[in-house]
């Protein structure tokens, strides 16, 4: 059975939802699912914008066949070739042997590498600024390299103001009937998963997202709809989400607050993290989030590290190094290019406490534009009463730093 939604009078969502996949890209948990969005334009020519993951191919075909109602599919525009969108290309080509494929040079190369036989079809290679007319709709293609693969482009329909934004402005969470961001409580129910999607999938490529935002800024008044490849379509309050993307891709904190991430073997480092959280709240700093790195998937930690201005890392020493899961979190923050944060450290070690120095060295030498506060809470096995002044000093320094960033 088809399952479609109308975007505008002649544009339809023909994608699918996925609640079966547990790990996106086989690494990031998606407990609330994900959608693979594809869009069908029925102009004088019929045009499919992108396809879906292989697991959702049957739904895509039913949707497209229903809307075409016997018409030919004339064009397939591929904005992004990653297999969660490109895996069904070959099936589309087989079903509609006369379809013409429009995409970038690099995307055609990737189609070849993935083994999709587009060569037997008319392939129309487009580049930045090219336009194409499908009847009453004229589109402009805009290169979007590294948002999130090098071949990516976005397509702007100048007739109705629809921006097919590829991975940009996407989110985890299956749509489950709702199509538009204004049909859900996005700021309450979706923003955390949107942040987790962007920061983990495209976080490394902030400067490329910034370039795209700059281009979008030039035509902002013309953009009426943003149609991403995951998550809801935006037709209201576009500025809200564009502002979030701007902050995330500039690596600017979204909120003044403290992320406390602890690595604790027997609960002693955890106790120190909790004691610090309480002291902060006593001092009026209540925007505090505490996570155990051992039972929190790192994708959530990354999203939170992009959200908050201050990060406290509390780690036990392990094999004379930083606890492995904490080390992995540090490596991920580096890999995803996180910048402009203020760190404070809590270290613990029963006979050779090394974790504080090693974390500070990593932050200072491996990451960009970070500040490590001088105060450090150093524990020998557990937090005892004699550390109360140190704990309080650390909380005060953090509070001063937060309050100083007006
Ligand atoms: Fe959803 Fe980069 O693919």
Could you outline the blueprint of secondary structure elements for this entry?
Blueprint: E1 5-8, E2 11-13, E3 16-18, E4 23-24, E5 28-29, E6 34-36, E7 39-42, E8 46-49, H1 57-68, E9 75-77, H2 83-86, H3 89-95, E10 100-103, H4 105-114, E11 123-125, E12 131-133, E13 138-143, E14 153-157, E15 162-166, H5 186-201, H6 206-218, E16 225-228, H7 238-250, E17 255-263, H8 268-282, E18 288-292, H9 298-307, E19 308-318, E20 321-322, H10 324-335, E21 342-348, H11 355-366, E22 371-379, H12 388-404
Parallel strand pairs: 8-9, 9-10, 10-11, 15-16, 17-18, 17-19, 19-21, 21-22
Antiparallel strand pairs: 1-2, 2-7, 3-6, 4-5, 7-8, 12-13, 13-14, 14-15, 19-20
Could you describe the 3D structure shown?
There is one protein chain. The chain is of the alpha/beta class. The chain is elongated, with a radius of gyration of 24 Å. The chain is built from twelve helices and 22 strands. The relative contact order is 0.09. Strand 7 (39-42) and strand 8 (46-49) form a beta hairpin. A seven-stranded mixed β-sheet has the order 1-2-7-8-9-10-11. Strands 17, 18, 19, 20, 21 and 22 form a six-stranded mixed β-sheet that branches. It has a five-stranded mixed β-sheet with strand order 12-13-14-15-16, with no helix packed on it. The chain folds into two domains: 5-249, Metallo-beta-lactamase, Chain A, CATH 3.60.15; 259-400, 3-Layer(aba) Sandwich (Rossmann fold). Helix 8 (268-282) crosses helix 12. Residues 80, 82, 84-85, 148-149, 167, 229-230 line the site of MU-OXO-diiron.
